Structures are given as C-alpha cells and as structure tokens.
Amino acid sequence: MLSFLLLSSLVQAHPFSKNEFSLRTSIKISEKGIVPLVALEVPIPIALYDIGAEDQDTKSIKKRKIKDYNKKQWDQMAKGLSFTLNGVPVEGEWLPIEHPANGKAAEGFFVYLLSFRPNNAYAPLNPGDEIIIKNQSYLDLPMVYTGSAYASAPYTIADSTAKQILGENKDKDLNDPERWSTDANLRTMVVTVGKK
Which backbone phi and psi does 98 adopt, to 5 degrees? Predict the structure, then answer.
C-alpha cells in the first residue's frame, strides 16, 4: 500500500510556474530493503518544443519522437543519479518505473519516474545507517525540489534532508506550495535509519 501511495504521489504536479521543472526524491525503507523513487516534471510547452513534433508528422512519427524524447529524459536522469549506503556505492541500475503516467503529460507537465534495481539483495539495515541519493541531472534549469522518507517496522526515519529543509511541511500535500523549495540541497537526499 505504501508503495502505491509513493507512486501515486509522484505523479501529482508541483503548484508553481509552468516554466519551472521539478525534481522529487523519495526513499522508503523496510525489511525488504530500500526503494528510492525519483521524479522529474518537464513543463509541457518545453517538452513539446524539445520533442519537435510537426503538424504534418504522421501519428507514428509523433509517437517515435515522443518515445525518443522519453528515453533521452530517463537516460539523462539515470546518468545523473548516484546511490550510496554508508558511503559505499550500491551496485545496480536506475530504471523507468512501470506506471501509466511515466513519460506522459499530466497536470501541465511530462512526468518521468525512475527507481533503482540493486544487483544484490540488501543486508538488514542498522540504526545510524546512512542512505544518500544524489541527483546531478538538469543543473542548469529553473527547478523546484521536494523529498520524502518513509519507513515501515522495524525501521524509522531518524533524520532526512527533507526533514531538515522542509521541516513540518515535509508531509504536506504535493499541491501545497510549502511542500516545495528552491533549495538545491534537496538534490542530495540523505536519510538516516532508525529502529523501533
């Protein structure tokens, strides 16, 4: 259920200018391991311009152009992401999430969603373990940021970048402007594991 909530919240748009991009990072920890989710929102007019579809293009040509553009976004996102656990890079691959909104236009934006598939199963986490997702994609674009960290028993979130920057606003609805920040420190989501 929590995974569904994470995914459904990732496709809600930020409430700011339709000329601003957004990056969101969410980390969920459980006995099964760590699930990082990263979302990029590209304003529709900018995406359509970059896609370069022309009125005279056939439907199949437009679909191909959109498919190529989507792949470019996912690849660029993945290239700019790093994932470490206690300072050690986690081996694996960033991949597009299987979700109906991924690579589609919704609420004024094209939405791009990635998660991480590790090469190996995660060892049990310990209190004080530090998870870091760093996002170095799209550094030169007008951007707003948010992040979140969730845990299920026996784990808790001892601390997170979202908590430090967003404070009590970290759990507000994604449509609430207070849930967002222009603080680029949210590009690096640090989560410290706690345990009940």
Answer: -75, 100
CA 165, 11, 43, 187: dihedral to nearest 10 degrees? 30
Domain that holds residue 191: 2-195
Number of domains in the chain: 1
* Separation of alpha carbons 55 and 57, rounded Å: 6
Q: Which amino acid is at 155?
A: Y
The DSSP 8-state label assigned to residue 185 in this structure reads G
Q: Which two tokens stand for residue 64?
A: 């191909």
State the CB neighbour count (10 A cutoff) for residue 56.
6
Q: What is the pTM of this model?
A: 0.88
pLDDT tens digits, one per residue of 118-172: 999 999 999 999 999 999 999 999 999 999 999 999 999 999 999 999 999 999 9
